[in-house]
Amino acid sequence: MSSKSFLVVAAFVVTLLIVGGSHAQQPNPLDAVPEKMPFDLAYGAPISLERADAVLAAAIAESKKHDWKMGCAVVDSGANLVSFKRMDGAQIASISVAEHKARTAAKFRRETKVFENAVQLTNYNYVMTLDDVIATRGGIPLVEGGKIIGAIGCSGGAGSQDEVVAKAGAALIK
User: Fold this and answer.
1) Separation between Cα atoms, residue 157 and residue 39, nearest integer Å
2) How far is CA 96 from CA 43, 60, 85, 93, 101, in A?
3) Residue 124's CB: how many other CB atoms inside 10 A?
4) Is 42-170 in CATH node 3.30.450.150?
5) Angle, to 10 degrees, between the axis of helix 159-170 and the axis of helix 49-66?
6) Are 140 and 126 within 8 A, CB to CB?
7) What is the pLDDT along the chain (174 residues), one digit of tens a residue?
């Protein structure tokens, strides 16, 4: 082996050691153990049909203010559909997407935007392997007295539009 070949091989090996060593030294942020359990909200009594319809009315009113055509769903604390409204002209796909957002928000006790951020901002793509997750904003838990009574999910526009409409509905619950 010539000295020139030896230097090329040696440089390659040193590069591999440096790259491999620096990669191994970076801690995995998922290994952090929080003191308290995140999103630890108790489930409460399920939202009534009357209140679910009032939440949807507030959401639809917000949607109409902007001329956004939406489908909006409210589920109870067990993630079961209570009420649904689809505005005239809203895309058909928004029916199942709105329901999915509401179920995810209720089952996982957090806004669906958390999952969107996990995938889009931090590349925690493992969340896509969790059953019933939808990683797009527009699903918001309905919390009353510190307990989840249900969730709202809205779909039909950009994720940011869906979120605005869902938050308008969720604001009705105190």
Assistant:
1) 27
2) 24, 17, 12, 6, 9
3) 15
4) yes
5) 140
6) no
7) 666 665 556 566 656 566 655 556 788 777 888 888 888 899 999 999 999 999 999 999 999 999 999 999 999 999 999 999 999 999 999 999 999 999 999 999 999 999 999 999 998 999 999 999 999 999 999 999 999 999 999 999 999 999 999 999 999 998
